[in-house]
Task: inverse folding
């Protein structure tokens, strides 16, 4: 038990007071005993009221002092407390929360009676003007300069006492309390100005001076103790020169500030700060309206427009103040279009944090991480960016603006609610801290008794000090998390760059913008926009926020119309999925990436439509990295094990493939993967698909046989699959090999293996919306006429007797890709002498290879195709390079280990290093092969289907050019690049291949 809770069993009154929360029960007894009238220890309501105070000891000390100051010794006061619960709650809660307000009551001992009035608080302007001797009904009130400072302070603190009492008693929430404090400050400024007029010739009527509240005063969000930020604007009265009006206005402003800030036995008010005026403290204190407008049009910095967001007339000439705001308010909403606006606001917030003294960083409630400024800066930045096109966001109040941002979809509902709740808590905590001694501070106290008092004022249970710190830290963490998500949102930069009026498109403005951006079918695009944004749903509201920016991003891609259509289809597919639009709005670069992918690649767009949940990948860089083979194989096999039906199992594996193809294609379009990485990733996905389908097929055949399989099966990758050089349109070239288990019947084992291979091919050939993975076994011995599956021994017998040179050439790319790993390795050992002959090729075999190459060129090129545009079989195409490399492998791999690779580029590099190919020829072959591979992949991404020709359609060609050469590339540049590379490669091929 804390020492403060000491009590004595000799006096039960002390124990009772300790239980009520008194820290010094003995002293409390001494203070209560002299109270006149009935026994205070028998007054349950009085004791309970004291115990409900934030600091019962402080409340009792304040009450005792107030009783002493009463003319009748406190009889009336204590009698009223016993009979009036409203007075009792208000007075004791104030006395227990604030030493300073207790001193106000002590200085004005009769003011307690005003706390008994249940009526709404009086309008403060008239009260304070009367206090300084001015008539609130006058157009230009003039007060009495004599004792104006003391009289104003006394009246101000009397009204402040009523605001605090209603606040602590729960009769007014944070918004109402802050607004009342701001109105009271404005009234004090008006009264001070009236008193200042009394010291001027002609009572200052030469100058029509308006006081513009800024910051929290302008936003009606004032604290109990805060600088009151102001700007002064003056206009000359009729018949008065401007220079004279400026002089008088300056003296009036100086007099106002002196009255508010001068020392007084009636306690302090607050500092009147005019540093937000044009040119800051170096600029003139008072300007005309025209001078203000000229400054903001020519010289104002970003932060000055942000400050103007809170500007509001609070005192002085109302007509001049209204004219000032009418002139400058529209300029506030144009500021976000300035170059670097968003970055400037973000940088300013960082500078504020950097200037917090190290010793205060963890205690700063206002400026620190997770503090009030995090909420305010985030809300103001969103307002200024989106408010240009949405007048519903143009509020001076932080909480009102936050509510509008949430309602209109600019901020997620959960985030808006969490920020609202946290901001109310933090502002209330700030009020409680300041209220104690009415001092301007934003530091959370460290003293346990201070924390206990504040925690009790919140009604926190248990240990109030610990509970308060825990709650504060929780809110602080939540605010910072949401602040970083909103404040550094990439979408803000894009919205800020839109022309005025574009951020919220009308139908006519939308059509005009679509035409300007280059949409080929503006009418169709407009229909998509209407379908996405019509209605009052939250989904439509968020779409209205996103689409003005997305339209520009789609236009940066090759096919903006297709991108917009795909976006509509994805949005409709995901329906009301809660995270989809939220992620596009909030998370990283997801929206820009999605626009780029959908507008660049129908292939990727179609994959996304089949698996729309994959949108989540676009917001996280790590999600666009191809996954490791081992992890994917494990996932595929787990999917197979979940299903007894092989068709369902295969569907699961195809779903995995669909997702991974989108991951790869999206990363490819976004420039996150190079050509070699794309080929490797596509090969891994094909291998995983084959592994999953093989597992499903083996399980099915074993189930049909009702016994374990009598043989082991391996799938050997051939062609581009074996060479780890798959493209988006590649078939899976394979060989099936099996080996009967010891003791198994060879015929039965062959039948089982044949059934497995057929089932695998059936499963992957089932109709599906995904890009197909065709399993092609035509490279097996005897081609299509030979058995689909052979045993390892059968392969050995065939190759020993019948292997032709083309079969040996095909085996150069053989590599196990699925099934029994040991069997696959033994297959490679079997074919090694065939593909890497120790003695190289005989001249007759070299001639045969050359003959076959010439025949392929002559016979396999599709009719009507421009040979020069064909990426595979045309001059300098993929076939030219690969046949060159493979001939060199057949001739020299028996002696050069570096040539023993199923790939194309690695053996080419080894051949160059060994001097088999000149450096210039090797570079020509390598450049052409890489470029043709990239174009071939880009054709699939742009067309949505495989193709081996450089496109003729200009839109397709533009899309391919941008994917291959970069965003600014032209179709002509791509064609020239491809033709030059092909010419060089063909010349090199004729030297290397034909000698």
Result:
């Amino acid at each position: 038990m804390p020492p403060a809770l000491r009590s004595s069993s000799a006096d039960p009154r002390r124990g009772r007071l300790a239980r009520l929360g008194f820290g010094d029960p003995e002293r409390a007894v001494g203070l209560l005993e002299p109270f006149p009238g009935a026994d205070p220890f028998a007054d349950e309501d009085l004791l309970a009221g004291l115990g409900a105070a934030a600091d019962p000891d402080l409340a009792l000390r304040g009450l005792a002092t107030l009783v002493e100051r009463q003319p009748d010794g406190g009889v009336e006061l204590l009698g009223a407390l016993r009979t009036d619960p409203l007075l009792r709650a208000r007075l004791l809660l104030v006395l227990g929360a604030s030493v300073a307000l207790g001193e106000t009551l002590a200085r004005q001992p009769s003011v307690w009676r005003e706390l008994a009035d249940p009526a709404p608080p009086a309008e403060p302007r008239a009260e304070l003007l009367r206090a300084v001797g001015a008539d609130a009904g006058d157009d230009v009130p003039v007060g009495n300069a004599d004792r104006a400072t003391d009289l104003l302070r006394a009246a101000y603190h009397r009204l402040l006492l009523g605001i605090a009492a209603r606040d602590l008693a729960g009769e007014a929430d944070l918004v109402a309390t802050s607004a009342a404090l701001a109105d009271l400050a404005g009234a004090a400024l008006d009264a001070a100005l009236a008193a200042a007029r009394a010291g001027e010739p002609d009572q200052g009527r030469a100058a029509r001076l308006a006081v513009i509240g800024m910051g929290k005063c302008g936003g009606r969000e004032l604290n109990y103790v805060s600088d009151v930020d102001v700007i002064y604007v003056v206009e000359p009265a009729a018949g008065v020169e401007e220079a004279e009006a400026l002089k008088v206005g300056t003296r009036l402003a100086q007099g106002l500030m002196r009255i508010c800030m001068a020392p007084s036995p009636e306690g302090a008010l607050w500092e009147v700060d005019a540093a937000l005026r044009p040119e800051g403290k170096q600029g003139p204190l008072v300007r005309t309206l025209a001078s203000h407008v000229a400054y903001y049009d020519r010289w104002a910095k970003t932060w000055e427009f942000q400050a103007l967001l809170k500007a509001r007339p609070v005192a002085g000439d109302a007509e001049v103040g209204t004219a000032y705001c009418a002139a400058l308010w529209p300029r506030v909403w144009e500021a976000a279009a300035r170059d670097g606006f968003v970055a400037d606001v973000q940088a300013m917030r960082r500078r504020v944090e950097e200037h917090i003294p190290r010793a205060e960083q963890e205690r700063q409630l206002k400026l620190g991480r997770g503090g009030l400024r995090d909420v305010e800066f985030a809300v103001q930045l969103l307002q200024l960016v989106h408010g240009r096109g949405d007048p519903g966001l143009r509020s001076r109040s932080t909480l009102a603006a936050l509510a509008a941002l949430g309602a209109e979809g600019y901020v997620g509902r959960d985030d808006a609610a969490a920020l609202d709740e946290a901001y109310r808590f933090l502002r209330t905590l700030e009020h409680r801290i300041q209220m104690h001694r009415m001092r301007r501070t934003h530091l959370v106290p460290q003293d346990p008794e201070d924390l206990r008092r504040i925690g009790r004022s919140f009604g926190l249970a248990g240990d109030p000090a610990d509970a308060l710190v825990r709650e504060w830290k929780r809110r602080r963490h939540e605010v910072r998390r949401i602040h970083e998500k909103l404040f550094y949102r990439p979408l803000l930069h894009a919205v800020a760059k839109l022309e005025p009026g574009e951020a919220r498109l009308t139908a006519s403005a939308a059509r005009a913008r679509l035409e300007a951006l280059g949409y080929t079918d503006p009418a169709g695009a407009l229909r998509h926009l209407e379908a996405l944004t019509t209605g009052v749903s939250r989904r439509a509201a968020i779409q209205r926020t996103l689409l003005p920016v997305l339209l520009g991003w789609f236009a940066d891609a090759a096919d903006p119309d297709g991108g917009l259509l795909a976006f509509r289809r994805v949005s409709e597919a995901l329906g009301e999925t809660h995270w989809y639009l939220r992620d596009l709005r909030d998370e990283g670069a997801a929206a820009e990436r999605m626009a780029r992918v959908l507008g660049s690649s129908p292939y990727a767009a179609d994959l996304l439509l089949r698996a729309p949940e994959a949108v989540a990948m676009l917001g996280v860089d790590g999600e666009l990295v191809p996954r490791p083979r081992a992890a994917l194989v494990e996932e595929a096999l787990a999917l197979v094990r979940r299903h007894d039906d092989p068709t369902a199992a295969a569907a699961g594996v195809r779903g995995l493939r669909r997702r991974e193809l989108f991951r790869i294609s999206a990363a490819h379009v976004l420039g996150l993967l190079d050509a070699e990485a794309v080929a490797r990733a596509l090969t891994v996905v094909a291998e995983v698909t084959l592994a999953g389908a093989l597992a499903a097929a083996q399980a099915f055949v074993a189930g049909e046989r009702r016994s374990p399989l009598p043989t082991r099966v391996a799938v050997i990758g051939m062609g581009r699959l074996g060479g780890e050089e798959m493209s988006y349109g590649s078939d899976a070239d394979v060989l099936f090999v099996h080996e009967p288990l010891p003791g198994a019947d060879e015929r039965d084992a062959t039948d089982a293996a044949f059934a497995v291979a057929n089932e695998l091919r059936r499963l992957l050939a089932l109709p599906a919306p995904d890009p197909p993975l065709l399993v092609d076994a035509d490279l097996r011995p005897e081609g299509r006429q030979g058995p689909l599956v052979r045993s390892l021994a059968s392969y050995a017998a065939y190759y020993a007797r019948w292997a032709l040179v083309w079969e040996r050439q095909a085996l150069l790319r053989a590599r196990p890709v699925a099934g029994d790993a040991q069997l696959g390795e033994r297959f490679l050992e079997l074919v090694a002498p065939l593909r890497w002959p120790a003695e190289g090729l005989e001249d007759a075999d070299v001639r045969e290879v050359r003959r076959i190459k010439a025949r392929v060129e002559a016979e396999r090129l599709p009719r009507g195709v421009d040979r020069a545009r064909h990426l595979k079989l045309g001059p300098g195409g993929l076939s030219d390079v690969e046949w060159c490399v493979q001939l060199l492998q057949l001739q020299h791999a028996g002696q050069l280990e570096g040539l023993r690779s199923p790939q194309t580029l690695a053996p080419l590099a080894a051949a160059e290093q060994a001097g088999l190919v000149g450096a210039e020829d090797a570079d020509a072959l390598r450049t052409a092969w890489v470029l043709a591979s990239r174009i071939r992949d880009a054709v699939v991404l742009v067309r949505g289907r495989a193709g081996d020709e450089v496109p003729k359609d200009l839109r397709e060609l533009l899309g391919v050019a941008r994917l291959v050469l970069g965003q600014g590339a032209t179709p002509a540049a791509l064609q020239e690049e491809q033709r030059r590379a092909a010419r060089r490669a063909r010349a090199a091929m004729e030297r290397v291949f034909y000698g």
